Amino acid sequence: MKTQRITRATGAPLNRIDGVQKVTGAANYAYEYPVEGVAYVFPVQSTIAKGRVVSIDACAAQALPGVIAVLWHENAPRLAPVEDAELAVFQSDAVAYHGQFVAAVVAETSETARQAANLVAVRYEEQPHDVELRADRGDLYTPEKLGGVYEADTESGDVEAALTSAAVSVDHTYTTPAEHNNPLEPHATIAIWSDEGLTLYDSNQGAHIIRDVVAAAFRLSPERVRVIARYVGGGFGSKSHPHPHTILTVMAAQAARRPVKFALTRQQMFALVGYRTPTIQRIRLGANRNGQLTTIAHDVVAQISNTRGFTETTAIATRMMYAAPNRRTTHRFARLDVPANTLMRAPGECPGMFALESAMDELAIACGLDPIELRIRNEPAVDPESGRPFSSRGLIACLREGAQRFSWAQRDPQPRARRDGPWLIGTGVAASTYPVRQYPATALVQVDRAGRYQVRIDATDIGTGAWTVLTQIAADALEVPPERVQLEIGDSALPRAFVAGASSGTASWGWAIFNAASALRTRLREEYGGSVPAGGLSASGAFDTNPEAQQFSMHAFGAQFAEVRVNVDTGEVGVPRLLGVFAAGRIINPQTASSQLLGGMTMGLSMALHEASVLDPRFGDYVNHDFAEYHIATNADVGAVDVTWIDEEDPHVNPMGAKGIGELGIVGTAAAIANAVYHATGIRIRDLPITLDKLLP
Amino acid sequence: MDLESHPANGLRPSCAQASCKECASLRQDARKYLEITLRVNGATHRLSVDTRTTLLDALRERLGLTDSKKGCDHGQCGACTILLDGRRVTSCLALAVAHQDAQIVTIEGLAVDGDHLHPLQQAFKLPLARSTLVRTLLDLTTEEEEHR
Fold it and tell me: CA–CA separation, B31 vs B15, rounded Å?
């Protein structure tokens, strides 16, 4: 009897297929490829924030045995004009930020390169710099497109009139500091020139984008540049775009006529690979006595650098979270002489939802309502700004599920109601959300006569589980067990796909793989009667856009719950318990999904209590540029973290029914903790991070 | 300035100023190299290192043992943790020349293949997999056992 094999790889908690390589140290990260005759480059960084280089004296550096070359703007290869001014390494004498590369030494060893870099004497002509972000600056500007995509401002109804006539209102300013992405694996590049072109082993979130930018800068056709990023030790957005170190390494290899490698030091990463902009956010909410919002206004001020700027999309979640007839969001920016900011995990949603969800908690208190009930009363029937229906919206289900698991009903809403010795105990809740984003991708699927499948796509696994999850998606699309599928990712020689970012990977890459697998099965059935020909068979598939994205508003949601303990004597804050309940469509792999969401929540806890990059206005640089002074939450800071999700069927998002989860976990966590701190102490902290000095009288 | 003719691009750079005293002293101050022996994961390696080379760089750059990671190079992240004569050490803060006779164990020394993982590696093969974390935990437990 012949039974049909039913494979259900998606939805199964498959172990990471790259797990053994990682725990045994066998997985090669960018800096770890053995390369014959490799030399080392080490940069000299600007000690001024604005001005120009008057002279470079490389005499002593060049004299050092083992030094191969010293590069600066007067002798460096000329690049083609680059769109991103930060990548114009050594193309002029101009200094635009503290820490900018002004020279570099290539040497036989890293020790010599570093010593020689210290011997390069740089004279500057310093100009006054402007590095302070304030909301009252007269020169704030409105970007043409926010984050390159969105309207900077939106407005409907009459916000000011509605605020004046509101029965209950809150009006507060919330601030978040600069935060650095800090993946554990530093940004690194090995550059190898050959007759065929250029090969880069590079730590990034998308090999194709690195390839395109490097090829253009060095006037090569893209086919002559190959970028390999098979294993990447975290990125959090800081590896989405090319940064100066990759250009520098390629240039150094060109000048030295040898392969050259470079990994940024942790300190260098604070100036050269981006960070999350600080934000100043004023939120005004107006409501009637029942707690129904009549107006929402969210006005944001943030910074970008003079070299390149990502205009942070801080208030975009405010546009779709809650119903209100009168609403406004605005974004203004200060252009400063600072290192370039970039994307950092949930750019926009993460700082924006700290402010909005803190304000919602304040409104609940002002209305005398439970914060969950307040959110339920303001649940919109359709996307309030676009008017489109939601493809699915699980916020209330998450809040209710979380309330039950967290025993929310037993909570006394009165602040300072619970105490355990010197510890004040409080609980808080906040919503999370992240849009469903999907970008073009292509994939190739091949099968041989033995029934082994090869799936090729330039996706990138930055620690997320993409190796495993894409294998599962391919297995189900091909209707074979995952063991029969061999995946190849992380190489610009593979079919093009978008970066691992914007929580878009699984949906976009998965869709392309799904289409390629479908095409292969169709070819196999229709052209070959179901049996694989002698030479094997292959088919390509692509995902371009989701037509339903024009009809529906597509977002994942979540509810974050936090319990905190605050010491009355020292102000110390502990978080013994976090709970996240998420609605993100179909979960492809419960094990890797749980880890991603848990990681996001942990990073949110870290944002709430620890992370802040401190800019010294005298020098224009981030001074706490190492792990001793830039504190990231460690095991000792994290208590029990419970991650769960509700079943959600969404037929509109993609064939897998999956929404992205890479960023959802960090959104709202800081607000839940700040709300819990208020509940514990009666002190409202609107300025992150929540450090003990802010809690002591 | 012409790229080809600039001294910076010669394979043997030389100072343009023959009278420069600093350069003269640098030329004399040749790098100090030492022949050393390192015992790593039961194997013995002979190598010549710059005396400034950290144990981490010796493992990664000279011996190609890249399982120990460089996350901060300041002893703050623990990614470079190794067992040095049974004690946890952040190898980025140790000099290679100072540990010639030590028994060094890195994560590669724990399991020969995927079927014979250390229990901690087995546990971390799950999604939180991080060789660095495994190593730190393992070294911690090993150290505790020895000091019991």
Answer: 18
Q: Dihedral sign for Cα A370, A371, A374, A379, please.
A: negative
Between B11, B17, B72, which is nearest A626 by CB? B72
- Looking up tokens 């008017």, which residue turns up? A387
Rounded Cα distance between A19 and A42, Å, is 33
H-helix or E-strand spanning residue A353:
helix A349-367
CA pair distance B72, B119, nearest whole angstrom = 27
CB-closest option in B3, B24, B79 to A184: B79
What whole-number distance in Å separates Cα of residue A505 and Cα of residue A462? Answer: 11
Question: Could you give the CA distance from residue A463 to residue A478 in angstroms, rounded to a whole number?
Answer: 25
Is A548 known to be catalytic?
A: no
Q: For residues A186 and B74, is the Cβ–Cβ distance under 8 A?
A: no
Whole-angstrom distance, CA of residue A691 vs CA of residue B7 = 53
Pure H helices in A371-501: 371-377, 395-405, 466-478
Biggest CA–CA distance in chain B, Å, is: 68
With a pLDDT cut of 70, the percent of chain A lying above it is 99
* pLDDT per residue as tens digits for the range A615-646: 999 999 999 999 999 999 999 999 999 999 99
One-letter amino acid for residue B69 of the chain: K
In Å, how far from its chain's centre is CA A677?
A: 26
- Cα A377 to chain centroid, rounded: 31
Q: Residue A689: is the preceding peptide bond cis (ω within 30°)?
A: yes
CB count within 10 Å of CB A89 equals: 26
| Helix spans in A529-630 (H) | 590-609
User: Alpha-carbon distance B82 to B76, whole Å?
Assistant: 14
Q: Which of A412, A284, A288 is nearest to A360 (CA)?
A: A284
**Considering Cα of A14, then A17, then A22, then A23, what sign does the dihedral take?**
positive
A125 φ/ψ angles, rounded to the nearest 5 degrees: -110, 110
pTM (2 d.p.): 0.94
A-chain residues near B57 (CB < 8 A): 110-111
- Cβ-based contacts of B17 with chain A (< 8 Å): 59
CA dist A103 → A60, A118, A204, A508 (Å): 14, 11, 24, 40
Q: Going by DSSP bridges, is the β-strand pair A101-107/A485-488 parallel, antiparallel, or unpaired? A: unpaired
Q: Determine whether the interchain pair A185/B1 forms a contact, defined as Cβ–Cβ distance below 8 Å.
A: no
Q: What is the C-alpha separation between A626 and A632, in angstroms, rounded?
A: 10
Chain centre to alpha carbon of residue A53: 34
DSSP result, B58-100 = IIIIIS--TTS--SSSSSSS-TTEEEETTEEEEGGGSBGGG-T
| Closest CA of chain A from B146, distance in Å | 23
Strand, helix or coil at A40? Answer: strand
Query: Where does A371-459 have alpha helices with state H?
Result: 371-377, 395-405
Alpha helices (H) in A167-296, listed in sequence order: 207-217, 244-256, 266-272
| Extended beta strands in A618-679, E state | 621-622, 640-645
Query: Across-strand partners of A488?
Result: A456
Q: Which two tokens stand for residue A164?
A: 């004046």
B19, B27, B31, B115, best to mutate vs chain A, most A CBs in 10 Å: B31
For A200, A652, A691, the CA distances from A575, given in Å and listed in that order, are 43, 37, 13
Q: Which amino acid is present at A50? A: K
The rounded average pLDDT for each run of 10 residues, N- to C-terminus, in chain A (697 residues) is 56 92 92 98 98 97 96 97 94 98 97 97 98 97 96 98 98 98 97 97 98 98 98 97 97 97 98 98 98 98 93 98 98 98 98 98 98 98 97 98 98 97 98 98 97 98 97 96 97 98 97 98 96 96 96 98 98 98 97 96 98 97 96 94 97 96 98 98 98 95
CA–CA distance, A354 with A532 (Å, rounded to integer): 55
Q: Which structure tokens are listed for A244?
A: 């100066």
